[in-house]
Every structure is written in C-alpha cells, then in structure tokens.
Structure prediction request, 157 residues.
Amino acid sequence: MTQNTQRVQMTPLGYRALVDELKQLETVGRPEGIDRVAKAREFGDLSENAEYHSAREDLAALEGRIEELKDIISRVNVVDLKKSGEEEVGIGSIVMVTVNGSQHEFSIVGEWEADPAAKKISHESPLGKALIGKKAGDNVEVEAPAGKVTYIVKSVK
Prediction:
C-alpha cells in the first residue's frame, strides 16, 4: 500500500473533532468491538455463527476507520485562522454571499470537515475554489449542472 503524503488543510475545530473521534474509537469503540467478538465466539460453531462473523466485520470496519483517522491526522496542516484575516476568503472564513436574490452564509473548511447540510463547504469544492482569495464586493461564477451561477460576496469574516 502506498503511503499518501499529501497535506490535509483543516481548521482547528475540524482537527479537534478528528482527534476526539480517534480517541473515542480507540478507548471505547475498539474494546466494545473486541468484547462483542469474544461473546459471539461463545455461541458455538464459528462456521455457522452469524453473530460472530458480523462482530468480526464490524471490528474490521472500526479498525479501518482508526487507521484512516491516524493517517489523516498525521498529514494535517492546521490553518492559522489569525493569518487568514478578514479581507480575503480562506480556509476558516465565514462568507456571506447572495445568489439569485437570496443570501447564504458558508464556512470554508478543509475537505475532511465539509458538511453541505451545515453550510460547511470544502475549499476543494467548485464553489470553495471559486471563493478562495475573493473579497467583499467580488462576483464569483461557478459552473453548476444547471449552468453558470453567479455569487456576489457580501462579507468575509
């Protein structure tokens, strides 16, 4: 397996969330998973023990997530929000835009923190890429499936 060395941009809040998830999985999730496998093993013939196979699959998925988190955390570059300033859009910025007469507020975050439902968009998304480096008053055109959409940057925090 090739080691990925690409740096991952992340806000301090996103980094903390990943570290917390890793700690929870290692201290609570893994022991519970191991315990579940041990209890299922007691149910008898392992070749026909569905509970045992399910517990092993769940434990393997959990171990995979732990390894993924360790890899991401080892490559994180936590963005200094004080340096990003309030003039230009950058990772960690909160951007107020208008599009088609309605206002929207987005947080620009690293790709592992993105949550469109919570209005957290990745700096690698089409809109995120278009907004990076822009200032209040700038127009931004983004190619969408329905055609070009023009956003007007109202403010950057």
